[in-house]
Amino acid sequence: MASTSLMMTKDGRRFFKITVSRGRGKTPYTMRWYWPDGWSKRAAERELAKQTAAFELACSRGEIETRADKKRREAEERAEAAKLKTLRQYAQGVFMPSKTVTFSENARQSYQMFINRHILPVLGELLLVDVTPAMLTKLLIDFQSKGYSHASCVKLYNILNGLFQMAFLDDSIQANPMFKVKRPAPRKDETAADETEKAYTLQEMRYILRCLDGEPLKWQTYITLMADTGMRRGEACGLYWSDMDFDALTVTIRRNLQYTPSAGVYEAAPKNGKIRIVDIGEDVAALLKRLRSEQASTCVSKYCFTQDGSPEPMHPQTPTRYFRKFGNRYSVKDFHPHKLRHTSASLAITNGADVVSVSERLGHSDTAVTLRMYAHANEESIRRAGQMVRDALKAGNE
Hints:
Layout: E1 2-8, E2 14-20, E3 29-34, H1 41-60, H2 67-83, H3 87-102, H4 105-123, H5 133-145, H6 150-169, H7 202-211, H8 217-229, H9 233-237, E4 244-245, E5 250-253, E6 256-260, E7 264-268, E8 276-279, H10 282-296, H11 318-330, H12 337-350, H13 355-362, H14 367-373, H15 375-397
Antiparallel strand pairs: 1-2, 2-3, 4-5, 5-8, 6-7
């Protein structure tokens, strides 16, 4: 039987501690569910009931483990890891299973693809202790010489570093050979994309929105919503009508619709696990209301964006294909969903929004991510501030 109690962290955050008994003398299962900011007591209690029921069901199925169980399992895994010798055995037996627990399905499959295609064919049969920095350096150089992008080279480097660091920490190897491997630099013929090219200018964005007049209502709504909120492609695809608050002009982003060949289309938590509430403009709300009415004439669905004539959600890869065709029709360079996210953030910062607020709106893990990605927008804001000073001084001399 589950029980709940309202508690508070040292920094003042409210959360419910959910406890499920395991019987007399046994440590109970516990979890925390944090009360989202801005939620009413009634809404929080309703969601708490769902979380409690789901947690109790997971406990009954043996899907939850106590701290003691976790320590025992980790000790067994470390002991098993010590028996694994080759890089292939370690990658498949320890490294990737750990990513299954902590990664999204998309991220896990991406790691698995890099390992299967680029690491195991070269180093898979070698003993972990026999892999040298020179071998790893050559692997990275060969990979880069095949024309892969700098971002892909860095990803391969990070995967190798993560694998060998894990092996070092669990005593499978005595030293991490990646400590002596240099992080790949861009090729001489490869220039990093200008940060300003990752976002559209205000004039370009206005042109894109004007082009929407001749497009289907679903895409008018989707593109306008993306530009307004900066949400991710999968977050927009995963929106329910119940996530909309048309009175408050807000949308709650609770899920991220994803796709992998093995799992198909599935719902995941938003990136970084952060549920957030984002405001929307009146024009966006009006489009959403029109879309809801149009959708109701053909089907009944909990999803805002569905497949044509079906209650099933729109496939999370469909927007990318549509954006490419839209860009070709209207001569919009590099038109893709994520560029609208960059544009929304850049326009906010260059027009005076503080980085902390923009970071929260985008659902970034911390403001450092926002600062790194939109440094060019900050520079424009700084130049504009300087011009305001100069204009004020000139006005005083007139």
